[in-house]
Amino acid sequence: MTTSLAPRPASPSPVARPSSTAPAAPPVDRASAGGPVCVRLPQVFHDPLLEEPPVAGAPVEDRRRYAELAAGANAACQGCPLVVDCLYRAVVEHDVAGYVGGTTARQRVEIRRRLGVVVSPEDFDTLAGVLGGSRPVDHDEVLRVRAAHPDETLEVLALRLGCSLSTVKRHLRRERTSPSAPRPVDVRPSRRQVLEATLAVTQPSSGGHRRAA
Ligand code: SF4
């Protein structure tokens, strides 16, 4: 099974097709391999246009600019050492906006549909560890650590989890207002299934669904 999502990164998706003026793929700094590449490209990943793609009737300049941003983001993701983990979490665990793990939000909707995955929309800071600097945590992880250390302060729990205090509070508040239904672990798709579905969605005409095998 390959760990690269883009053996042919030049045309990963219809919405991220590179143009001659697209931002150049950032050189992957192997000396700092292990960190998220997007952290070094806030001008691409934090551009509001990347989170809210222009509609069909939008001005040509907006659509051109979006294509440039998407191409630059895709090049960054394909060179990122975290891309497989990042994609898996963005598909299976968190519904966030923007370009994540080499996919657009719309592509992830289609990937989830194919896999039968349902996730609740969340705000972007759940993936802050992937895109910002601190460690990513999910709802179940916060609850597990809380249950294992019921007497610890939330500040200590945040330290244990490697996330912010506000993230811990938000997950615990969410659990109080909307208790989680038990979720069987085995309904989650495997990484291989996510990769295959991603390639089938982002490279539908290239036999991408066979490349993860
Ligand atoms: S969005 Fe994910 S895969 Fe893309 S550069 Fe950031 S951490 Fe890496």
Describe the structure.
The chain contains 10 helices and no strands. The chain has 213 residues and is mainly alpha-helical. It has 2 domains: 30-117 and 189-210, no CATH class; 124-177. The chain is globular, with a radius of gyration of 18 Å. It binds iron/sulfur cluster.
List SSEs in N-to-C order: HHHHHHHHHH
Structural class: mainly alpha
Share of residues in strands: under 5%
| Number of separate helices | 10
Radius of gyration: 18 Å
Low-confidence stretches: 6-32, 123-133, 208-213
The largest β sheet comes out as:
none
Total domain modules? 2
What proportion of the residues is helical, as a percent range?
40-55%
Arithmetic mean pLDDT = 75
Number of strands: 0
Overall 3D shape: globular
Ligands present: iron/sulfur cluster
Distance between the termini: 5 Å
